[in-house]
Amino acid sequence: MGAMIVTGGGRGIGAAIARQAGGRGYKVAVNYRANRARAEEVAEAIRQGGGTAIAIEADVAREGEVLALFRRVDRELGPVAALVNNAGIDVERHLAGVRLADIETIFRTNVFGLMVCAREAIARMSTAKGGAGGVIVNIGSVAARTGGMIRDGVYAASKGAVDTYTRALALEVANQGIRAVCVRPGLTDTEMFGGPEDRKAAAELARTGVPMGRIGAAEEVANLVLWLCSPEASYATGFSYDVSGGR
């Protein structure tokens, strides 16, 4: 089936995607930036289930580290069949007081790093360059169309960029055996909620603002990602798919 790279694969949605991918036969590269123990735990769970996985440290905001990530996958896991650009960060700050450094930090990971990872995947997947094709799934957010929650404006803008880039990417590589899609989670139970107050606010928003009345699970996002990577979604490209409980 080939290799799947999951950036930010050591926790939350990324970990759920990595675990499901390992169970479906992908050789999984569990990328992480800082928490090696969490990434190794995910990789070990895949191996214990009979799959193949390695944890690879790389900050996707740094081009050199992305290049090293892909080279290691080339050596140890073989051809890349799927890339899931899941790594993302937020710096909560009201827009009236946002600093340029905050904007740069968010965009370097959520947009620039995503683009560099996609570039490296294309170089390996493209049938025009001798590759076997593949799938690129960019993890966006419904914040791209809702504007996010208070203090999430820059994050929402970065995810809007992911939407537009995904569409442009899909059009460019459609005739090279590559599909590109975006999955946009809504309120999902991950570490990005932060402390108890953030979780309380999210639960209240889910109750009042999500038609299904609840927060989603990371596994529910992973289900869609793995389907989009499968042959069952072979005619799906260029669009964003919400997993948001109707929000």
| Multimeric state | single chain
Spatial gap, N to C terminus: 34 Å
> Structural class, from secondary structure content?
alpha/beta
Number of domains: 1
Which percent range fits the helix content? 40-55%
Total strand segments = 7
Average pLDDT works out at 95
Topology-level CATH name:
Rossmann fold
Strand order of the largest sheet: 3-2-1-4-5-6-7
Content of β-strand: 15-25%
Largest sheet: 7 strands, parallel
CATH homologous superfamily descriptor:
NAD(P)-binding Rossmann-like Domain
CATH architecture: 3-Layer(aba) Sandwich
Any idea of the CATH class?
Answer: Alpha Beta
The parts where pLDDT drops under 50 for at least 5 residues are none
SSE topology string:
EHEHEHEHEHHEHHE
Summed up, the helix count is 8
Evaluate the radius of gyration.
Answer: 17 Å
How is this structure best described in words?
The structure is a single chain. The chain is built from eight helices and seven strands. The protein has 247 residues and is α/β, with parallel strands linked by helices. The chain has a seven-stranded parallel β-sheet with strand order 3-2-1-4-5-6-7, with helices on both faces. Strand 2, helix 2 and strand 3 form a beta-alpha-beta unit. It has a single domain, classed as NAD(P)-binding Rossmann-like Domain (Rossmann fold), CATH 3.40.50.
